[in-house]
């Protein structure tokens, strides 16, 4: 059984965010954001996040852009008020086209947490990534840290 987690950094203080990760037993954070260095990311900017994760919770950091939507898919949904069902279908098609199940080994997901900005997983691609992999691999347990 592959044990995975997801977390979004919005609507969380740094204390809450890092405590949730540390207490869950996460060993590696997989950053699945397309843009991970924006000023809007606050404590979750790539370089700061790598430092904080290692220092506070001994968690490794890895940016995995293969698990992020394309700019076109993201913009159509976020900036142009697109429909979630369209976004979801396009994103799942992208994951299949990229054959993500063959790009990263299952061991990369063991005790790992997928990070994105969305507070809740319901309308976030981090949930879709793991649902896609559950369909391909089976045997994945997912805990959403909210």
In short:
This protein has 146 residues and is of the alpha/beta class.
- Mean pLDDT, to the nearest integer, reads 95
> How many DSSP helices?
6
- Overall, the morphology is globular
Largest sheet: 5 strands, parallel
**End-to-end Cα distance:** 22 Å
Task: Outline the low-pLDDT stretches.
Answer: none
Q: What order do the helices and strands follow? A: EHEHEHHHEHE
How many domains make up the coordinates?
Answer: 1
Structural class: alpha/beta
Pfam families: DUF488
Protein name: DUF488 domain-containing protein
Written description of the protein model:
InterPro entries: DUF488. It comes from Stieleria magnilauensis. This is DUF488 domain-containing protein. The chain has 146 residues and is an alpha/beta fold. It has one domain. Helix content is 43%, strand content 18%. The chain has a five-stranded parallel sheet, with helices on both faces. The longest helix has 15 residues, at 84-98. The two termini are 22 Å apart. The model has no long low-confidence stretch (mean pLDDT 95).
Feature tags:
146 residues, 6 helices, DUF488 domain-containing protein, 5 strands, DUF488, five-stranded parallel β-sheet
List the SSEs and their pairings.
Blueprint: E1 2-8, H1 14-24, E2 28-31, H2 46-57, E3 60-63, H3 71-78, H4 84-98, H5 100-103, E4 112-116, H6 125-137, E5 140-145
Parallel strand pairs: 1-4, 1-5, 2-3, 2-4
């Amino acid at each position: 059984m592959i044990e995975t987690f997801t977390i979004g950094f919005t609507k969380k203080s740094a204390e809450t965010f890092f405590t949730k990760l540390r207490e869950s037993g996460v060993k590696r954070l997989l950053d699945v954001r397309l843009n991970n260095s924006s000023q809007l990311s606050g404590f979750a900017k790539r370089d700061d996040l790598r430092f904080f994760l290692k220092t506070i919770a001994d968690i490794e950091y890895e940016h995995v852009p293969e698990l992020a939507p394309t700019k076109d898919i993201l913009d159509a949904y976020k900036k142009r008020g697109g429909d979630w069902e369209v976004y979801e279908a396009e994103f799942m098609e992208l994951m299949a086209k990229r054959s993500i199940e063959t790009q990263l080994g299952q061991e990369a997901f063991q005790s790992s947490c997928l990070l994105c900005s969305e507070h809740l997983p319901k309308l976030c691609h981090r949930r879709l990534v793991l649902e896609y992999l559950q369909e391909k691999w089976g045997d994945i347990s997912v805990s959403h840290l909210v």
